[in-house]
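Task 17 of the worksheet. Students: predict the tertiary structure of the chain below and write it out as structure tokens. Keep your answer in the requested format; marks are given for formatting as well as content.
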Amino acid sequence: MDTYPAQVSIAAIMVLGAIVCCFFWKKQNQSRQIEEAFLVNYGPLQVRRYSYLEVKKMTDSFKEKLGQGGYGSVYKGKSNDGSLVAVKVLSKLKGNGEEFMNEVAAISRTSHVNIVSLLGFCFEGSKRALIYEFMPNGSLDKFIFDANTPHKNHHLGWEALDRIALGIARGLEYLHRGCNTRILHFDIKPHNILLDENFTPKVSDFGLAKICNMKESIVSMACARGTAGYIAPEVFCRNFGAVSHKSDVYSYGMMLSEMVGGRRNINAEAEDTSEIYFPHWIYKRIELDEELGLPSIVNEEDKLRARKMIIVSLWCIQTDPSNRPAMKQVTDMLEGSVDCLQIPPKPYLSSPPKSTADSSTTLVSIQ
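Model answer:
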């Protein structure tokens, strides 16, 4: 008498299993279709595709977390040849994987000392991961923002900061001019600059990057992309000008300003209201030829390096994109003498609202 219920249970389990298998197959097939579409558009990918099981093994079941962001988490891992890797596992997924494959396609076609190397990726339905070369010194932000460091001993020194600034500029110049396609990053900030064992900077995180034809000087975008506090004004409002490689220049200038100040550009806790927005405050000091009042300046060489980086940053954050230098000019200025640099006009968007101090990456619709 119990045979019929047992048969029903077995049938139900079989149907459920079939549904699960069908759903898994559909996800896998969808992943393959998205990857195939990218292969048609961008050609063969130059990096290896890993299975999720391989990623799990590589990270020893995600044992050691290196960091966490709005995208997910980064884990320390070891490849088959024994070399260390960083595995970025995405948890907040957007779309069907187009943005993820965009990052793979963008970074896999780069090869430069100041661009992080992508070694492989995993794309199995909702399981998505990127395997990068391991950067032992982590990201640049921890060496800039020392508000939570009691002894404030994270300052790298002005010679190192100057060298790092130049390396980042060279990496961006390569993305804009050195690839067979132009790559606009759209999320340049200290958190996305990684440092190797020699503190050589590497531009990373190409999740918002846009791949363009080299002949394209202007790009179209349905949404603003980037991190509040670093986004160029024209990305938010087309009245300021067209979106182009100069939008990355603006983000670079805002980051360079933070490297100089050793603090976030917007400090709502500043006692003096004139110090809330650092570029505004430092511009006045440069304009009046006053003491810079910056941390760790111990000699005349430090002062000259700091002054040069300040002037370059102020040129980069000019409100009108046409007044900003291209990254090639930025590298020339950083490599040259501060005596050859003119003080730029004051950027007239000098005090953005405090809400832009939010450091999360964003996509904002523009009507």
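Marker's comment: Confidence is low (pLDDT under 50) at residues 350-359, 362-367. The radius of gyration is 24 Å.
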